[in-house]
Amino acid sequence: MADGVARDQLRAFIERIERLEEEKKAIADDIKDIYAEAKGMGYDTKVLRQVVRIRKQDQHERAEQEAILDLYLHALGMASAPMNDNDDA
């Protein structure tokens, strides 16, 4: 009897996981379609993905990563000069 209960529980876990995997694939396909639609309208999908990733971060984490990126770019001589509002005049 104990083997039957364990077997039933195992089967239930597997079936739940399989259902969620199917849902995950359907959602991934939907996301892919949205990116394709955006690309068709002229948006850069790499940048869209980056924006989505950045929006997931909290403000402190994002500021920290931007500071480190800036430090690395300066160290490699790749940092651009800061923009000044008076440059347009």
Describe the structure.
With 89 residues, the protein is mainly α. Helices cover 76% and strands 0% of the residues.
Structural class: mainly alpha
Encode the helix/strand succession as letters.
HHH
* Arithmetic mean of pLDDT: 90
N-to-C CA distance = 85 Å
Categorize the overall geometry. Answer: elongated
The number of E-state strands comes to: 0
Low-confidence region ranges? none
Q: In this structure, how is the largest beta sheet organized?
A: none
Helix percentage range: over 70%
> What's the number of structural domains?
2
Q: DSSP strand (E) fraction?
A: under 5%
What would you report as the Rg, rounded to the nearest angstrom?
24 Å
Helices, strands, pairings?
Blueprint: H1 2-40, H2 45-56, H3 59-75
Which key phrases capture this entry?
single chain; 89 residues; mainly alpha; 2 domains; 76% helix; elongated
What's a quick, concise take on this entry?
With 89 residues, this protein is mostly helical.
